[in-house]
Amino acid sequence: MKELFQYILKPTAYSSYSKLSKATFFKLLLTYFGLSLFFAGISAAICYIFHIKHNDIEIESIMKSILLVVFLAPIYEEIIFRGLLVFKRKNLVLFFIVSAILLFISIFRQKYIVAIVLASLIVFLISSLVVFGVKRMKGFIDNRFAVFYYSSSVLFGLIHIFNFSGNVKYMIIFAIFLTAPQIIMGFVNGFLRIKYGLIYSIIFHIFVNTSFVLSLIHK
C-alpha cells in the first residue's frame, strides 16, 4: 500500500476523516500480515538461537480468551496508545475513563508496576491540562505530530516484550526485532486512526488478535 508507506515516512495530523472502503481495509490487513510474518520469522530465529520463549496466552477458557484478547484488549489498547493522537475533549474523557478502569484492575490484580505507570500518566496529563489547557496541548501535539505518532507505535510494540521470557539480556538487545510485528501494527493502526477514525484501528486490531487466537486453538 503506497499511501500507507508514504504516511509512515511523513505522518501528518488530518483535520477530518476519510471514508474507508472494504477493499482498502483488507489490503492493509494483507500488507500487515505479510510484513509481520517476515519479522515473525526473524523473531523465531532469535528466540531459537538465544533461548527466548514466547509466552502464549492460556487457551483453557476459549470464551475468556476471546473476550479479553479479541475484544477488550484492542479497545483499551487503541484508546490508550492512539486515542489522543487526535487531541480533543471527548477523546480525553474516553482516555481517562479507560485509564482509570485499567488502574483499578491493575491494583486489584496486584500489578503494581502497571498501576504506577498508569497513575503517573493520569497525573501528568491532568497537570498538563490544568497548566496549558486543551487548545495549547493540541497545538503542541499537532506541531510535533510525527514524534507522537512514532512514539506511540514503538512503545505499543515494546510493551509486548513482556510476552517473552528467557535471557533478559538478549530480550533487551533484540527487543525491536522481537516486537516488530506489534510495532508495525502500531504504524498501521496509527494511520487508520488518523485518516479514518479510532473505530477502524480497533476493528483492525480485533482482526489481528482473532487470527492470533485462532492459530493457538488449532495448535
Descriptive tags:
globular, mainly alpha, 78% helix, 2 strands
Would you write up a description of this structure?
There is one protein chain. By secondary structure, the chain is mostly helical. The chain has one domain. Helices cover 78% and strands 3% of the residues. The chain has 10 helices and 2 strands. It has helices spanning 2-9, 22-50, 62-82, 89-108, 112-143, 145-158, 168-173, 175-178, 180-195, 198-217, and strands at 52-54, 164-166. The chain has a two-stranded antiparallel sheet with strand order 1-2. The protein is globular, with a radius of gyration of 18 Å.
Extract low-pLDDT stretches: none
**Average pLDDT number:** 92
Number of structural domains: 1
Main beta sheet, described?
2 strands, antiparallel
Question: Nearest-angstrom radius of gyration?
Answer: 18 Å
The number of helical elements comes to 10
Distance between the termini: 31 Å
Spell the H/E element sequence: HHEHHHHEHHHH
Shape: globular
How many β-strands, per DSSP? 2
**Fraction in helix:** over 70%
Main β-sheet, spatial strand arrangement: 1-2
Structural class: mainly alpha
Topology:
Elements: H1 2-9, H2 22-50, E1 52-54, H3 62-82, H4 89-108, H5 112-143, H6 145-158, E2 164-166, H7 168-173, H8 175-178, H9 180-195, H10 198-217
How is this structure best summarized?
The chain is mainly alpha-helical and 219 residues long. 78% of the residues lie in helices and 3% in strands.
